[in-house]
Amino acid sequence: MKITYEDFRKVDIRVGTVLSVKNNEKARQPALVLEVDFGTEIGIKTTSAKITHYYNSDNLVGEQIIAVCNFPTKNIAGVVSEVLILGAIEKDGKVVLLHPSQKVENGLEVY
Q: N or C: which end of the chain has fewer CB within 10 A?
């Protein structure tokens, strides 16, 4: 399915820095709860993501990620998920997160 450039512009994709990471104990499948700083315009947002194959608090805190910031909130195993972190999904279901190749300002838009 093709979309127009105007359709794509409706998706608010931003860069943020991971502030904290903890396990989502209520999730049926292993998941992490992240707090991410998207700068002054958007602020700090929370999300739950099934990214435990490669990621934990040791290698995520302080790292920048890419996320969609204008989806409605969703309750995921007791966590109000406010953003959708973007990643490439390998054939076995493991997620490799997308991130800028160098540090940039939190909240920058991604096109």
A: N
17-65 pLDDT, tens digit per residue, is: 999 999 998 888 999 999 999 999 999 999 999 999 999 999 999 999 9
Residues with Cβ within 8 Å of residue 15, at least 6 apart in sequence: 38, 64, 65, 66, 100, 104, 105, 106, 107, 108, 110
| Residue-level pLDDT at 25 | 87
Q: For residue 81, report the phi and psi dihedrals to the nearest 5 degrees.
A: -90, 120
Helix (H, G, I), strand (E, B) or coil at 48: strand
Is residue 52 a contact partner of residue 30, using CB atoms and an 8 Å limit?
yes
Buried b (16+ CB within 10 A) or exposed e, 99-111: beeeeeebbbeee
Which sign, positive or negative, has the C-alpha torsion 43, 48, 51, 52? positive
